[in-house]
Structure formats: C-alpha cells, structure tokens
Amino acid sequence: MYRYDDYDRALVRERVAQFRDQVARRLSGELSEEEFLPLRLQNGLYLQKHAYMLRVAIPYGTLSSDQLRTLALIAREYDRGYGHFTTRQNIQFNWIDLERVPDILERLADVDMHAIQTSGNCVRNITTEAFAGVAADELLDPRPLAEILRQWSTVNPEFLFLPRKFKIALCAAEEDRAAVQMHDIGLYLYRDGDGEMRLKVLVGGGLGRTPILAQVIREGLHWRHLLSYVEAVLRVYNRHGRRDNKYKARIKILVKALGIEAFAREVEAEWEHLRDGPAQLTEAEYARVAASFTTPAYATLDAADLEHGRRLAEDPAFARWCARNLQPHKVPGYASVVISTKPGPEAPPGDVTAAQMEAVADWAERFGFGEIRIAHEQNLVLPDVPKRDLHALWLAACEAGLATPNVGLLTDIIACPGGDYCALANAKSIPIAQAIQARFRDPARLEALGELSLNISGCMNACGHHHIGNIGILGVDKGGSEWYQVTLGGAQGMSAALGRVIGPSFSAAEVPQVIEHIADTYLAHREGDERFVDTLGRIGLEPFKARVYTREEEPA
Predict the structure, then answer these.
(1) From CA 141, how far away is CA 277, in angstroms rounded?
(2) Positions in the chain whose pLDDT score sits under 70
(3) Taking burial as the number of CB atoms within 10 A of a residue's CB, which of 84, 270, 317, 357 is the most buried?
C-alpha cells in the first residue's frame, strides 16, 4: 500500500496545527459557529444531534494493521468504544468532544492518516473495490491511478469550493464492485488490443434526492490523460454548476440539464487547453506511485488445499462461512475474506468495536501481509489469506463475534446512522435494520432466499444507497412521524439499476412484515435458481404490491 513521503506528512501536520488554532478560537468565542462551519467541514467534522462526528479518510478503502489499531485507540479513548464504517470506505466517530479533535488528528497523523476533504464541497475520498489488486477477475490494478487522483485532488485550490461535493470511483475488474455508476465521475480501466491501459469515463451519476446513473462521456481515454480530463470535467462543472440551490448543485443535474452530448462538447473544448500540459502523466510518475503496490511475497501453494477441504467436509458451519464470505483470489491457494459487520440485531450495520478492530489488525498480520480493506457494503476485508489458514481465522472470528456467514444475503444490510445520530435524517435506520435482522435469523431461510441486497437510508441524501438495493428502504417524515418508503429492483454492478417505489409508505412496525411478504412473493414465483432481481424483472412489481398491500383479515 502507499506510504506517505515527507511532502504528505508535512501537509498533514500543517493542517493539524492550523485546525488546532481554529478550534481554540472557536472555544474561546473568537469564531462563531457560522464562521467555524466551513473550517470544520474541511477537516471532516460535523455537528450532529448529540455531539460532533469526525469522519476519517481511508483512501480507496485500504488500511495497514497499525492504522486500524490507531482507529481502535481513538474509538476507545476519544469516543464510546466503537467506530462506524461507511459506504464511502471511511470511518466515523459519533461522540467526539470538540476540544479533543486536534489531539485525534495528531494521532491520525502519526500513522499517515487524516480527515481532510471527508466533507465539504470538494473532491471527496477516492474509492475503488475492496479486492483491488487481488481479485481473480481483475483486468489490472486500479490502486496506482486511485492514489494519483488522491494526491492530485488533495488540497487542490481550484476545486476546494465546488458547487457541491464530488465523488470519484474506479473499477478495473470484470464485475463492478465499486458502484462506479453512482458517482460524479466513474472510471472503468482496461487494456486495449496493444496492451495499453485505457479508461472509459462516465459522468453525472449520483443517488440522493434525484438518483441518476452515470453516462459514458468518453471511451478509450489513455491513462496519461487521466488528470487533465478529470480536470476538464471539474472545470466545466465548477463554471456552470448551480450555486443558488444546493438540491440542484450536483453535476448530475448539470449533465441532465445540458444533455450528455452538450456537456461532452464543453468538456472536450476545455480539455483542448489541458491535454498536453503539466497534468499529463508520465511513465516515471506512474512508476513512482505504482512502486507502493508491489506484489506481496506469496507462498507457492496448491489451488486446492487438502486440509482446507477436510475442514469443509467435517464442519458445516465453517463450510457455510466459506461459501458466503470468501472472494476468489488471483493467486492459487489464497482467498480474500470478507468480515461481516452485520451480526444481527446485536449491533448496527457497519459498527465495529475497538476490541474487534484490534482483533482484525492482529489477523491481518497473522494470516496476511498486514493490510485491511473496507468495502462500500460496510464490511471489512482481509485480502490475502492462505486457504490453509482459513479455519484458524474462522475460529478467531467466531470468538470475536465477526464470523456471521451472511455476505450478499438479506441480512448483509447497508444502513446509514439515520435519525439516531444524523441531524439531517427524517427517520431512524438502525432499528429498522435490527428488526429485519431479527426477523430473518434462520440461516436456512436466508440461504433459500439467496443473493439479495437490502439497503436503508434515513433521508433523501441516500447515504445508505437505498436506490441500488434489490430492496431499498427510505425513511420519510409523515406528519411528524417516521415512515418508510420501499423500492424494489435496484442493483449495483455492471448492470446497475435504480429501484422503483412500490406504493405508499409503511410505519416502522410494519416494515419487517413487509419484507417478509416481499420475500415470500419472490419464493412463490421464482423459477429454478433465479435471483430476486431476475424474478422481479420477469414478473414485474404487481405481484409484490398485491401481496404487500393486501390487508390480512383479522381472525373472528
């Protein structure tokens, strides 16, 4: 993984010192909250319902074991013993005292971390899939370009005050596991017939109040032009994006208003001034960054480990975990392991305790090369585990409460913090997730339903990605009460889709039964091994609506 150089460290240390002074002036009353607001947002600090929340950047979802231990320390010493991993591959601490924030930032700087640009109208955390560099279906490694984008966009003065926040994602595998089409700029990497790295560039994606899938603006962009082309897109957006209405300020609204062809013409015209300028990448610069992503010292192992096979045959619980929580690895004898943060109603999705973080950090060193990934589904990933060590890892995960075999199943719920914490939320997300998890605790029932995603957002900002869940749940305000709107048919990946609203919203008490009805309808109409989204695509919404909105007669 990338390690900071002296320039990176100096920049982060200077920002810590600057913000320490700003916090002191806020605490003394020299700065009002209105004056302090843009300063704290530039450092990832939000004021939520009960306390300040600090969002820490995890670039493209990659952590070292030492960094994860530092996050555990912050959770234990500065928060309430846990952190919340987000759909942007970051971590949030929800109970932070303002006067202690500079000390937290110092702790982060000690391990080459920060909270810069995790908020505000700027280029946010650059993301890619959690299996980058190790996935069996990977075409090439997206991490060097992700890191180049991170360095270029960090404290770039031209783009620190955009009309609205701006998110960029990359994918370089056959399957899109980075939700690329939901981003302001999405980049698909591939090699052309001559072996040259190229990019398909998409723009104008986003969820929130107006969900839109990104559209292709350019095919076959040479990797050398990555920065200049992204800069051209940002300049057009910065120049024409609306600043009078934050609900219409995202680039997706501009692209929709102009049309993709007109927007593309604007970008191409701007790019003509930039394409052969200082932003053009060189082989030397790419090599400098790529050197941080060298292949680990993998052992030479058989693709099929006999001891692992014996364990699978003898232990059904272990076999079930392997079937759900492993991802194929490009190196024979290895697997990537997904650590589910969704054990059930005992813990909110994405929440991990300090002790659990420390355990995962230990496993990363014991069973891998000291690296951890964060998936946008809010799970943790150990990218390089020998198959011969999987049983030992599973036993340790069981002891730590991190061995739930539900990755990709209904209870692998994505959920934002919702109304329990967020001042913007219309409704709570966590209790709804917990109620659904309690309803669907039977492993056999979950396996019968198969691959089925359920995402929950507490408001239209869609931090829980409800639009792209096979089942989506959105909290809405209805006369001062919390109600929940349900969508069906959303999907991420290469065949991304936005869910459709099935009808009127439901009370919190009704939601678990509604999900039960949806699941039953799917099973009743499924043909063979058909997935939920395929059955829905074949039969449409009507059978689901009929079941959900049919009132069962009360017994006499």
Answers:
(1) 26
(2) 551-556
(3) 357
372, containing H or E segment: strand 371-374
For 232-292, give the DSSP string. HHHHHHHHHS-SS-GGG-SHHHHHHHH-HHHHHHHHHHHHTTTTTSTT---HHHHHHHHGG
The end-to-end CA distance of the chain, in Å, is 66
Residue 518 maps to a domain: yes
Determine, yes or no, domain membership for 555: no
d(CA 110, CA 114) in angstroms, rounded, equals 10
Instruction: Say what the alpha-carbon torsion angle 462, 467, 468, 470 is, to the nearest 10 degrees.
Output: 130
Residue 519 CB partners (closer than 8 Å, separation 6+) = 410, 440, 449, 452
Instruction: Map tokens 């030492």 to a residue.
Output: 66
Question: For residues 20 and 522, what is the distance between their CA atoms, to the nearest angstrom?
Answer: 55
Rounded Cα–Cα distance for residues 374 and 388 (Å): 24
The verdict on residue 124 lying in a domain is no
- The pLDDT score that the predictor gives to residue 555 is 45
Tens of pLDDT, residue by residue over 131-172, are: 999 999 999 999 999 999 999 999 999 999 999 999 999 999
Q: Which domain holds residue 311?
A: 306-400
Tokens 């043909």 correspond to what residue?
A: 527
Q: What is the pLDDT of residue 554?
A: 41
Dihedral, 281, 283, 287, 290 alpha carbons, nearest 10? 50
Distance CA 443, CA 316 (A): 12
Q: What is the torsional sign of CA 387, 393, 397, 402?
A: negative
User: CA-to-CA distance for 517 and 486, rounded, in angstroms?
Assistant: 12
Residues 262 and 167 in one domain: yes
Beta strands 185-191 and 168-171, pairing class: parallel
- Burial per residue of 159-192, b for 16 or more beta-carbon CB atoms within 10 angstroms, e otherwise: beebbbbbbbbbbbbeebbbbbbbbbbbbbbbee
Residue count (the chain): 556
Express each pLDDT in 163-201 by its tens digit: 999 999 999 999 999 999 999 999 999 999 999 999 999
Alpha-carbon dihedral of residues 164, 249, 280, 42, nearest 10 degrees?
A: -10
Do residues 478 and 508 lie in contact, with contact meaning Cβ atoms separated by under 8 Å? Answer: no
The torsion angles phi and psi of 132, rounded to 5 degrees, stand at: -60, 135
pLDDT computed for residue 556 by the predictor? 42
Give residue 552's pLDDT: 56
User: Does residue 382 sit in the same domain as residue 423?
Assistant: no
Q: If 0-12 CB within 10 Å is exposed, 13-18 middle and 19+ buried, where does residue 272 land?
A: exposed
Q: Which token pair is 229?
A: 């082309």
b/e sequence 302-324, b meaning 16+ C-beta within 10 Å: eeebeebeebbeeeeebeebbeb
Does residue 299 fall inside a structural domain? no
Q: Are residues 376 and 431 in the same domain?
A: no
